[in-house]
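Revision sheet: structure tokens.
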Amino acid sequence: MKKVSIFAIGILLLGLFLSSSVPGCSPPQSSKLKVVSSTSLIAQIVKEVGGDRVEVVNIIPPAQCPGHFDIKPSDIQKLSDADLFLLHGWQGEMFSQELIDSANNPDLEVVKIDIKGSCIIECNWMTPPVQLEATEMIASALAEADKEDSSFYQKQAKAYKDKIQAKADEIKAKLSEVDLSKVKVLCADMQADFIKWVGLNIVSTYGRPDSLTPQVVRELVDRGKEAGVSLVIDNLQSGKDAGKAIAEELGCKRVILSNFPGGFEGTETWEKAIERNIEIILNAIK
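Predicted:
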């Protein structure tokens, strides 16, 4: 009995060895560059530039504030299997170093897509100039991580930049039909750079709901009344109802914009997201 059992085990082990060594019998290994992004702003550019050469997974949900994100075990797993981690380097992404350390992936390359410029708060990625610069930086990061496909990423980046510029020209033409400089607004500080690009007249900005003490709200209301503010603009990700009380006190309209593709349903790309924001603004001021 023992000899039969030993012989049977030997045959089983031999079969397992042959099945794993014969071509086509082992699980297929993806040759695509595995990229993890911290936000949908980065993820959608990676998809545009990377095409079928990359696999990208995103961490922070598009409707959530990066500053209030809690790491999950599944996020650690994403990084442990990745080749490249792309993040903004914002103060709100303080979780990122803890996430990188927990992934324990010595082969992981980390690149910060930190856009600099003349910004009021943080350079808003919804504006075309920042979107163009981010595309360049992300294409360079992909090309460095996957040198064999470098020319492909650069070609894809050029094509996407053309799309960004075309969309920017289209939107600016639409906005030029209205004298936006006469529309005075109070807005969430995380929307300030976008509103500045749109051309609205920013009287003052405000922070997250937890920073709006009764005294701060009163000052904003007084400032709004004195200037003749007709619109309050909230940011979906940093507190969509932050300016609600201010708008009620002023007796004016209030809108909510998104800083991330996918924040609103049906806005999974930058083009769709910026179109939705512009539509919301124009509907409010007409």
